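Run log // design_07
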């Protein structure tokens, strides 16, 4: 049986998992944002139907106050073609994707320039290459990492998967930041003490499998207060992380098994494949956010639904106000 089929079966029979069909976490995030002011957002190179429409829709929902950065004539022509009105929004002229990325990062570095950045139709690498520059980018003392926030029909929890888009083969030191970034995001999303599953292929420490060694070290770091705010366990296989039934069969007793809020993957490839499997075979919806920088960066895909694009913006709004509470 595949992992996805096993997940679906375990959810159907586990008494602890509730009623997946009634669980729509994305709606909850959007509702929470109705009480918060929109955040100023540098929208970098929105020169595709999805990118431009997504920015305008998020603005119309009072999630963001966008500044559109790109070729002005091309953006206006595209807006006329797809029937959206961009006249209310400031435009910064940029002749190339690289220049647009530089202007977007510059806005986010400037005090009060922009509270978030949103990827348009340029490639993620092109944007993040500029954002990750040590002197002129958006780096902090944290490693920059990516989280997929998932609304999964077969799982009755908000599920965070990290890192599936930025760090290709993270070392242990990188994973400390990846885990802490995800925990902090979970807090912003309303999960006060997230359960963190450190994924591998097995549940025992094997010196030949690096991810099991990293998982054991991360758990001990959490015990010693080097990682805070969550409950860590690992190494765990995917089935034992999300299925109480699988964990019980394997004799695992843990506050994380079968109830994980955060899945920390060994590397980008495994994380990307896991997220896309859940999306295309499991019916999950994905919102994407980049963490650890001076401001949240909203990542959207050409295949994203309107709700997914809006939710990615909502996640950025919730994260911003978790870090900068109103009235502070």
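design_07 sequence
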């Amino acid at each position: 049986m595949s992992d996805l089929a096993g997940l679906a079966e375990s959810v159907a029979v586990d008494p602890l998992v509730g009623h997946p069909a009634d669980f729509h976490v994305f709606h909850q995030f959007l509702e929470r944002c109705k009480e918060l002011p929109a955040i100023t957002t540098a929208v970098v190179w929105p020169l595709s139907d999805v990118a431009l429409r997504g920015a305008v829709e998020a603005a119309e929902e009072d999630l963001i106050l966008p500044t559109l950065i790109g070729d002005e004539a091309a953006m206006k022509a595209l807006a006329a073609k797809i029937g959206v009105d961009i006249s209310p929004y400031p435009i910064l002229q940029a002749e190339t994707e690289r220049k647009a990325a530089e202007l977007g990062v510059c806005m986010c570095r400037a005090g009060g320039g922009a509270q978030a950045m949103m990827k348009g139709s340029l490639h993620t690498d092109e944007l993040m290459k500029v954002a990750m520059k040590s002197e002129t980018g958006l780096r902090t003392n944290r490693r920059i990492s990516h989280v997929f926030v998932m609304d999964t029909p077969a799982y009755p929890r908000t599920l965070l998967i990290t890192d599936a888009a930025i760090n290709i083969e993270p070392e242990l030191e990188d994973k400390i930041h990846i885990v802490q970034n995800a925990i902090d995001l979970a807090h912003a999303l309303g999960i006060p003490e997230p359960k963190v599953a450190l994924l591998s292929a097995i549940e025992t420490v094997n010196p030949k499998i690096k991810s099991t060694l990293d998982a054991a070290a991360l758990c001990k770091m959490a015990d010693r207060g080097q990682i805070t705010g969550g409950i860590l366990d690992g190494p765990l296989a995917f089935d034992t992380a999300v299925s109480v039934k699988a964990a019980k069969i394997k004799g695992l007793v843990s506050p994380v098994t079968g109830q994980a809020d955060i899945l920390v993957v060994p590397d980008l490839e495994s994380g990307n494949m896991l997220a896309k499997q859940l999306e295309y075979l499991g019916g999950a919806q994905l919102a994407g956010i980049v963490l650890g920088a001076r401001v949240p960066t909203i990542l959207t895909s050409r295949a994203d639904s309107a709700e997914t694009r809006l939710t990615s913006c909502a996640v950025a709004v919730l994260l911003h106000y978790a870090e900068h509470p109103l009235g502070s």
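The longest strand covers residues 64-70.
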